[in-house]
Amino acid sequence: EMTAEEGEDPKLKELISALEGLQATDAWGSKKEQAAVLLENAEAARATKQTDRVLDYCTEAVSLSVGCLGEQRQALLGALDGTQDKVMALMDSGEAVEGALDVLVTEAQIRQLSAEAHMDKGQLLEAKGDLEVAEEISAKLSDEVETARCLRSRGMLCLMQKDVATAEELLRRSVQMCRTAEEPKEEAAALKLLIKLHGQSEGRFDRVCELYHELLEAHQRGGASHAVSMTLLRLGQFRLEKHLSDTSKGVELEYADLEMTDMDLGGALDYLSRRNEEGLGSDEDEGGGGGGGRGGGGVADGGVHDGLDGARLHVVTASLLQLHALDEKHCIVPPPLEHLEQHQHRVPPGQQQPP
Fold it and tell me: Locations of Gly residues compositional bias (predicted)?
């Protein structure tokens, strides 16, 4: 049955007919399935840092995806206008269009993954080319999450090229798009890159603290309790470094600033102490990293294990002791010394610092 839109647009009718012809062949299903399997293989290789294998899988998968649609690929992209209404209208045109749109989604994901692998190898021009195509497809499909990933990866690429202004603009756009799409994990991955960007600049202490608080909110919205605590630890250490630097320059410390640092580190200490006492380990990640595709795994800290928790517990207790030693006249009450010391002997040899 012809839809109203088909009847008004002969080009769309011609496109649907061509797609139906393609999908009637045996090669269609085979190519589509192989491309999806190769994407899964590439993601697995990415997780184990086998960059060359990622690129091999992606190259083959892109070839299969493009081959699925042939000359109709550009016609299908031209029929899309970047709105969800248009995507839904096309999907209502029948299974042929729906299947073709699935192929485009797969291609965008493959190219995003390929771009990340190229960046890992320092092949920035190749990464830029893949990202441009991935972002075009994602924008046409009105896929906010995949578009946000592309923006984040482009921001990372600009950071590698020392283009800080463009990197910040792209990363802020990624953050806003993730918030609109209610994707806190992807939002966190972009915020981590913004923290890295500003953390390398002088005189951006307040801005970095603001970004850490945005990151905390993203993790809280995503229900990532471990990521919240690890962010408190990093924020507390960041503040402590500033206090130590100020002290070395003879700057008088404000009680309110020291108290905030104490609260951040104390929150991390409470969490890690509970986990240590209960003997917990966790596979929970921290809300995505700076360059990973499906899970933002490029900069993520990955799984958490008992030994690593012990090392982190050692670091946070040592940080609190440093903080409390800065200036006793501010009356920051430290945890009992024996409470701090009882955890330090649990740190495994060779794991005195977290990654």
Answer: 288-301
With cut-offs at 50, 70 and 90, classify the pLDDT of residue 309: low
For the chain, how long is the longest CA-to-CA vector? 82
Q: Is the dihedral of CA 172, 178, 181, 184 positive or negative?
A: negative
Last residue of a domain, one of 142, 170, 191: 142
3-state SS, residue 122: coil
Residues 1 and 134 in one domain: yes
Within a 10 A sphere around the Cβ of 335, how many other Cβ atoms? 17
Residue type, 213: H
* 38, 73 contact by CB (below 8 A): no
Give the structural domain span for 355.
Answer: 224-355
* Alpha-carbon separation of residue 297 from 25, 38, 44, 188 (angstroms): 37, 18, 11, 12
Per-residue pLDDT of 237-268, as tens digits, reads: 999 888 888 888 888 888 888 888 888 888 88
DSSP characters over 2-13: --HHHHH-HHHH
Q: What is the rounded distance in angstroms from the CA atom of residue 279 to the CA atom of residue 251?
A: 42
Name, in order, each residue with C-beta under 8 angstroms of 1's C-beta and a sequence gap of 6 or more. Answer: none
Q: Using one digit for the tens of pLDDT, what is the confidence trace for 26-82?
A: 889 899 999 999 999 999 999 999 999 999 999 999 999 999 999 999 999 999 999
How many domains in the chain? Answer: 3
Structure tokens at 201: 């600049």
